Amino acid sequence: MNIRESSYGYWSSSPAFLWVAVGAMIGVGNAVRLPYLMSEYGGVLFLGVYLLGLALVGLPLLLAEWMLGRWMRDDLIAGYARLVEAAKARRVWLGIGGLALLTAGLILSYYSVIAGWSLAYGFRAASGSFGQLTQEGARAVFLGVAQDPERSLSWHTLFMVAVCVIVSHGFREGVERAARRMVPAALLIAVLMCLYAMRNRDGLAAYEYFIAPHPEKLTWRGVIEGLHHGFFTLGLGMGVMMGLGSYLPVSAPIRRIAVAAILVDTAFSLLAGLAVYSVVLGAGLEPGTGISLMFETLPRAVGGDFGASLFATALYFLLFIVTMTSATAMLEPVSRYFMDRQRWTRVFAATCAALLIWFVGLGTLLSFSVMQDLRLWGRNFFEWVQLLTASWFAPIDGLLICVFVVSIMPRDLVRTLWGAELQPWLYKLWFGLLRYPARLGLIVVLLYALGIIDWLISLWSVA
């Protein structure tokens, strides 16, 4: 069965799709998380492990998702229905598409809240209101935004409306056009921020903190963290890459695009890490990670002079931009589902999808205010959504894709996925990586996320 033509059209060019793919990959998580993991687990040595994990696990699965999406040419549910029928497999495998859509929607629901905070902080930084903040003052500023439901709701709503408008314009006139403008702008801002921070702050301290090699820090836990982060930062297991792949022409050089996208994504993370850590360490502060780093430590570190205010403004708008490009890529497959299944127009489908995700995002928004004490087994709503999507749903979906392609689909159908790029040596290499290291890596990541590996190690140490 050959690859069908796309009834919706195609990306305008391979470089255009590269920008879309990079836009889907880069985000707040990779800009902050990768440098933090490098600082914890051996610096550039961890980076080597991370890149090896991408080559053995992330890259083959990324190619598989793009090729599956290109073969389907449908929304994820209908596409998997065709694929299951062609493979003569059981209908239970249809759950891969449903789980991917659920994961994308849930991740976007809390991305939107964080992006809204970034925009709010960008305007605060532009007004110069971060001058000489104490730790208590920085905490008070963050709580003033996060614990104010009306204010957070406004930023959350504004972001989702912007994402909805972009997706409503179509995958070429909306998603592609936004990525072609925003991603190069984000890279340029990251370069300028890095140059400013290293010249005016403490670039050497940043290098020593998260890039310099420290072999004693590289542990088995660091290896697993590298595998997990590499999987998550590529947007795998959440239907995003399959959705984008449905608009790929058969002639697209997906191997080169995939490698280029991974390298650009990694370079962006290193630039962002150098910029952020140069400023934070130059101020004599402990960086930390995640929300506390971005919304409490950084405002204290930048200071209140003009250059610092400009840097902070650029940083928070950079976070807003990269979250926007990731968000449009997440909303696209969810909107496509409503378009194909309900026969709705793109505008109406994108609006309904965005409204549904906006509503789910209220749970995250309220987790920092009126629902912060509402906990189940020690976690609030936001923490549960983050845990389920990043640590469970996405790895499970990625593992199911590996198993389906390697063990369920007939070999002739698998070869068809490659289209014009099919070469015997390349097919064998890709299939072998998907069959062994990719599946094993995802199993390890899933067991680690479930706490089973830590439990086994504790049993071993007791014995």
TrEMBL record:
CDD domains hit by this protein: SLC6sbd_Tyt1-Like
Protein name: Neurotransmitter:Na+ symporter, NSS family
Residues spanning the membrane: 41-63, 92-113, 153-171, 183-199, 230-250, 257-280, 306-327, 347-370, 390-409, 440-462
This protein's GO CC annotations: membrane
Lineage: Bacteria, Pseudomonadati, Pseudomonadota, Gammaproteobacteria, Nevskiales
NCBIfam families listed in its UniProt record: Na_transp
Keywords, ordered alphabetically: Membrane, Transmembrane, Transmembrane helix, Transport
Protein topology in the membrane: Multi-pass membrane protein
Subcellular localization: Membrane
Principal cellular location given in the protein's record: membrane
InterPro entries: Na/ntran_symport (IPR000175), SNS_sf (IPR037272), YocR/YhdH-like (IPR047218)
Pfam family, any one: SNF
